[in-house]
Amino acid sequence: MAGRMPIVGTVGLAVGLITGCLTAQHQSPTPEVKGAASVRTLRQGIRGEGVPAFWVRPGYRVDLVAEGIENPRFMEFDDRGTLYLSRPQKGDILALRKRGERYEVVNTFVSGYPTVHGMHFADGWLWFTQTGAIHRARDRNGDGKADEVVTVIPEGSLPRGGGHWWRSILVTDRYIYTGIGDAGNINDETATERQKIWRFRKDGTGKTLFASGIRNTEKLRLRPGTQEVWGVDHGSDWFGRPLGERAGFQPVTDFNPPDELNHYEEGKFYGHPFIVGNRLPRIEYHQRPDILELAAKTEPPAWSFGAHWAANSFTFLTKTHFPGHQGDMFVACRGSWNRSVPDGYRVERVLFDQVTGRPYGSLTIVKTLSPENRVLARPVDCVEAPDGSVLFTCDTTNRIYRISWAGQESKSEGGVNGKAR
Fold first, then answer.
1. Which residues have a Cβ under 8 Å from the Cβ of 409 and sit 6 or more positions away?
2. Do residues 357 and 228 lie in contact, with contact meaning Cβ atoms separated by under 8 Å?
3. Would you state the pLDDT for residue 157?
4. 90: DSSP letter
5. pLDDT tens readout for residues 156-187
6. Element (H, E) at 363
7. Which H or E element spans position 176?
8. DSSP output for 184-199
9. What are the tens digits of pLDDT across the range 254-287?
């Protein structure tokens, strides 16, 4: 946002800030840089034909690769290059394949699964979630339609619905993980199965509490080369309302709390609903007699995003398509409704120190909010394609975009329509 100065320092300094507002990842790239006597346009990467006026970081290119697909939400590739796309409102998963530079629907992989959402391809199966169940399916003859579907965790084994009904899924060599979010905003649901990450054996048995204190973590993945479970969690809304904020005047809520990137570890507590960001109590709970004990046991975020960015989903980068990016993460941020001035609406790169395995910075790669605060797209999910480029969905414009590496020659004054200019 204009007028905010980035805080330059180490991660250690950033962790010391109680709101979790860390360095330049909170600064929305703006198309103008204002100096004492001049205004210049920020250089841009390349936008392909049909791409709205996104801000694209120099060195990158964005192309439109699919459109007219209603309610595209989460994505997953299999080992044959088929792209699976979940559509909760339609209750189906589509199978798409690359044709030239576009992805085209080849079949409906499964249908009749209302609230289908999270997916993970493992062991030759596409595992997928509904709000209260987990299934796996596979396509034996390659026509893009599942010819075998197995219910692994049936309805009734997980809480259904709620304000956060989306369900994550991670399948490892030994386990299935899924997250159950808050039924509302900051409900105290510690005595229920909500606000927690659960682990099962791969046959659906052995239900075990893995971690607690989450609000809405829609995707879980292992950091490449490790057994570390990572996810992004939405921060809560209306932080400043108990202080008397009113419509159009919310100076506290606009900047608190941050969205979180968490390294989830067994037995640990991540704060929600009592503690946000870097061990800051929610005002509604600050008089609890155990609030300091709750703060002491809260695991702070490994990295913090801007408040209400709606950091929704992510993909780790494992290939060499983007030079020097291996081990980093692209995060899809769907954008803020709980801010006076919109923010978020972007795909953010989180940089990981490959020695420590921990985040140390972030950069906006694509911003989908215009300088006039017009929403051009709401990024929902990111997935790394077989060639190493990254796709992201927008479930409001019904499109899929591709981010690729364009090289240093794209550092021009606003490349557009596939050409630098």
1. 420
2. yes
3. 86
4. T
5. 888 887 888 889 999 999 999 999 999 999 99
6. strand 358-367
7. strand 175-180
8. SSS---TTSS-SEEEE
9. 999 999 999 999 999 999 999 999 999 999 999 9
Q: Where are the domains of the chain?
A: 11-410
DSSP state of 281: E
At CB < 8 A and 24+ separation, what contacts does 22-27 make? 22/258, 22/303, 22/304, 23/361, 24/361, 24/362, 24/363, 25/303, 25/304, 25/305, 25/306, 25/348, 25/350, 25/361, 25/362, 25/363, 25/364, 26/305, 26/306, 27/1
- Sorted by sequence, the CB contacts under 8 Å of residue 349 that are 6+ apart come out as 325, 328, 329, 330, 331, 362, 363, 364, 365
Q: Tokens representing 337?
A: 């409704």
Query: Which tokens belong to 13?
Result: 């300094």
pLDDT in tens, 340-349: 999 999 999 9
- Positive or negative CA dihedral for 155, 159, 165, 171? negative
The DSSP letter of residue 246 is B
Averaged over 224-232, what is the pLDDT?
97
111, β-bridge pairs: 92
Distance CA 391, CA 75 (A): 9
For residues 396 and 388, the answer to whether their CB atoms sit within 8 Å is: no
Integer Rg of the chain from CA: 21
What the block records as the tokens of 327 is 């081990």
Cα separation, 320 vs 404, in Å, equals: 11
pLDDT at 41: 55
The CATH homologous superfamily to which domain 11-410 belongs is TolB, C-terminal domain (2.120.10.30)
| Spatial CA neighbour of 234 closest among 281, 271, 204, 285 | 271
- How large is the average pLDDT for residues 62-77? 97
Q: Which residues of 235-263 are buried (b: 16+ CB within 10 A; e: fewer)?
A: bbbbbbeeeebeeeebebbbbbbbbbbbb
**Are the CB atoms for 96 and 74 separated by under 8 Å?**
no
Is residue 83 a contact partner of residue 106, using CB atoms and an 8 Å limit?
A: no
Region of poorest pLDDT, from 36-40, 156-160, 218-222, 320-324: 36-40
Phi, psi of 66 (to 5 degrees): -160, 145
Mean pLDDT, range 289-312, rounded to an integer: 98
| pTM of the complete model | 0.87
